[in-house]
Write a structure and sequence with these properties.
The protein is mainly α and about 150 residues long. It has a domain of about 100 residues. It contains five helices and no strands.
């Protein structure tokens, strides 16, 4: 069974109650995929933060060494000039984009934790019905059919 992850998150987290065995098999790989993406995104975010700090420092030194002639230079003016600087704005925008990706992947990894918990619950429900001895037909198909009909 081969599945490609990351194309559609809603499909990735969907649980097929009729194939709990397969869902349990792919859960570790699915979690690993998104956890790895999350780690990579955090790395890019950290690099973007370092770049932002570098650009802030570089532009502040430039502004202090080349103050505008028509404005009295105070700390407030330096701060205002730095905030308006196009290089600083670009670095901040890049950092924000990386932060957004990290936040989305954090939510994905958290959702996968919930998915694992739901798989545990569904497997527990299934095995209790399977082993309680009240089933006349204890085949997986009969149990799955009963479990599927409980939601109606």
């Amino acid at each position: 069974m081969s599945k490609t992850f990351g194309e559609n998150f809603a499909d990735d987290v969907r649980i097929n109650r009729m194939k709990l065995d397969e869902e349990c098999e792919i859960q570790p790989s699915l979690y690993h995929f998104y956890a790895e993406e999350y780690a990579i995104a955090r790395s890019f975010r950290d690099a973007a933060k370092d770049k932002l700090d570098f650009v802030l420092g570089e532009r502040e030194i430039y502004i202090r060494r080349n103050p505008p002639d028509d404005i009295k230079t105070t700390e407030a003016v330096y701060t205002a000039l730095l905030v308006q600087d196009s290089d600083v704005l670009a670095a901040k925008d890049e950092y924000r984009n990386h932060m957004a990706k990290v936040d989305v992947l954090y939510a994905a990894v958290t959702s996968l934790d919930h998915r694992r918990s739901e798989l545990d619950n569904l497997v527990t429900i299934w095995t209790k019905d399977y082993y309680n001895g009240t089933q006349k037909d204890i085949t997986g198909t009969a149990i799955r059919g009963k479990l599927n009909n409980k939601g109606e």
